[in-house]
Amino acid sequence: MNLAQNLTQHIANPQNIIIIDGATVNAAWVSSHTTYLASNVLPSPTVPSYYIVDLSLISNQFSVLSQWLTNHVANISFIDSYSFILLGHELNDTAYKTQINTAINQNDFYCIDGDSLTKMVADFEHTFYPNYLQVITDTNGIPKRLDLITNYSDENLCFSIPFFQALFLAMDGAMENLEEVKFYFTKVTNADDKSTVAFKVVYENLEGYYDYSGGQTFNILDLSKKPAASIK
């Protein structure tokens, strides 16, 4: 049950949603967050009651959004939020997918498997915000490695740990076969010749394409996205 339905009629863009477990917050929290709430209804929530927060109503600044997520880690129902976290990163433009596949064919990529990626984080399944993995590139903008950031603060080319958790969960069986999940990080360039990074993930017969979280160069691949979508 969305407890905010009698407080607002606002419908949030799913890309910007985060789910708060209603049992973990009090009346003072509700009062201070009413202007950020949405009345969307979850089809199959895992918690009896919840609030839907539209992060785009909180701020357009990555540092503010990241701090809010960090402050509310104990209140977030991650299992209910994961699908919305993925939506904020999905890359649907065919031109960018083609660029990624071309770069892979030309060996201009950084590859890491799921096992190696999760081992970069001490307790991957129980690590949340403000922990991110940052893509480090060479002088030509080609990805060359990932670094763990344990206190995200508006850095470029980052993906949150909850994003990767959501991704593994969405690929049925991936967590039991992490070494078979392959990530291919590549450079991509938009029509204005501005470059950034994105990646393709492959597991068995599944594949997906995603763009990065946050940073000062947001978001040259999809101008319709808000910072709230990509910071998650």
TrEMBL record:
It comes from the Bacteria. This is Uncharacterized protein. It comes from Flavobacterium fontis.
